[in-house]
Write a structure and sequence with these properties.
With about 220 residues, this protein is mainly alpha-helical. It has 9 helices and 2 strands; from the N terminus they run βαααααααβαα. Strands 1-2 form a two-stranded antiparallel ribbon. The structure holds protoporphyrin IX containing FE (HEM).
Length: about 220
């Protein structure tokens, strides 16, 4: 059927994604409560100061573990392909919603791919630095210099992660149909063809006449 929708995310992928999103919000709020006295009031959401301090690292580890499952599902689709470089050079046309001269891309666009690897890097830094500053269990194995450096890196990675997620949400809302894909799983054929043509061809095995060079993405 020509207008049959295409499955972009199955139920496991969607559940996994939204679990990470919920854990991210909890980790961010509890982290901010511990970051500055002006934000300490946020600790009420977690049962007060001591509970926030106990819970924050466990929430963080849980977020990391579920994020790792997401990475295992999606890393292959986030490798850069030949067309990505040209797509990035034509980003002004993408922003103006023009299709002329914009090469077809795979399941994710180069912006999404850059974001994906940035998220992974931030998560790794957060986990490693978080272990070093986890007073209750691990800090005694590290010197004060390492603890200070880890504290700095932890705050820096959290800052970059929060900014990246703001961009991620903005981009998801900007491309109409994306949030619905992550909520319900399906996208229309027109959506797939317009935004991710190489992926569209791959899942439908259609080869439009104006095909341009590009490997699987
Ligand atoms: C809190 C609100 C969030 C919203 C509204 C949101 C929205 C979305 C949407 C709409 C997509 C589908 C994009 C597409 O199919 O083209 C997506 C994909 C994805 N999201 Fe989120 N997201 C949120 C939080 C997060 C968080 C906290 C993380 C991880 C730290 C995350 C990681 C991902 C990843 C890895 C993908 C697949 C894209 C790729 O592999 O490049 N999201 N998200």
């Amino acid at each position: 059927m020509k207008d049959k929708p295409i499955l972009r995310y199955n139920a496991n992928e969607r559940t996994n994604h939204w679990l990470v999103a919920i854990l991210f919000i909890m980790a961010a709020l509890s982290g901010l409560a511990l970051f500055h006295p002006a934000l300490f009031w946020l600790s009420h959401l977690f049962g007060g100061g001591p509970w926030t301090r106990i819970l924050h690292p466990f929430i963080g580890v849980l977020m990391f573990v579920f994020f790792l499952f997401l990475v295992l599902r999606f890393w292959r689709a986030n490798f850069f392909i030949a067309n990505d470089r040209l797509w990035l050079r034509r980003i002004d046309r993408v922003m103006r919603n023009e299709e002329e001269g914009v090469p077809p891309i795979g399941k994710y666009n180069p912006g999404q791919k850059l974001l994906f690897w940035t998220l992974l890097l931030c998560m790794l830094v957060l986990l490693l630095s978080g272990v070093v500053i986890w007073r209750a269990w691990f800090s005694q194995y590290f010197g004060i210099g390492s603890i200070r450096l880890a504290t700095l890196l932890h705050a820096l990675a959290a800052f970059v992660l929060v900014l990246s997620i703001i961009i991620h949400i903005y981009a998801g809302v900007w491309i109409k149909g994306s949030v619905s894909a992550m909520l319900h799983g399906w996208v229309s054929r027109a959506w797939a063809k317009k935004h991710h043509e190489l992926w569209y061809r791959e899942v439908t095995r259609e080869d439009p006449p104006d095909s341009q060079i590009g490997k699987k993405g």
